[in-house]
């Protein structure tokens, strides 16, 4: 008599490990993201210079460098429409900590 045993559990999923991700910008600003199990790899930040010493910051995270860098393409038009004096755009890799 031969018995066949399946080692696969049906309906049970292993939870993905939650990660803490850290981005360190060139000016020393540190952004922590998490805990998350999302596959983020890069963090992007736009600092819009509005005039009169005022700034506004927009940021996000992306699943690839290509996706993050794609945020730069519409920036010139956005700056023109919103009347920004200038803007800075940065992308950094997220590090798991």
What does this structure look like?
The chain is mainly beta and 97 residues long. The protein has one domain (19-96). The chain is 13% helix and 43% strand. The protein has two helices and six strands, in the order ββββααββ. The strands form two sheets. Strands 2-1-6 form a three-stranded antiparallel sheet, with no helix packed on it. The N and C termini lie far apart (52 Å).
Q: How large is the radius of gyration? A: 21 Å
- Globular, elongated, flat, extended or rod-shaped: what is the shape? elongated
Structural category: mainly beta
SSE succession: EEEEHHEE
| Number of beta strands | 6
Give the amount of beta strand, in percent: 35-45%
> Termini separation (Å)?
52 Å
Number of domains: 1
Main β-sheet, in a few words?
Answer: 3 strands, antiparallel
Q: Helical residue percent?
A: 10-25%
pLDDT < 50 stretches: none
Summed over residues and divided by their number, the pLDDT gives a mean of 89
Brief rundown of the structure:
Helices cover 13% and strands 43% of the residues. With 97 residues, it is mainly beta.
Features:
3-stranded antiparallel sheet, elongated, mainly beta, 97 residues, 13% helix
List the helices and strands and how they pair.
Blueprint: E1 19-24, E2 30-36, E3 42-51, E4 54-62, H1 65-69, H2 75-82, E5 86-93, E6 95-96
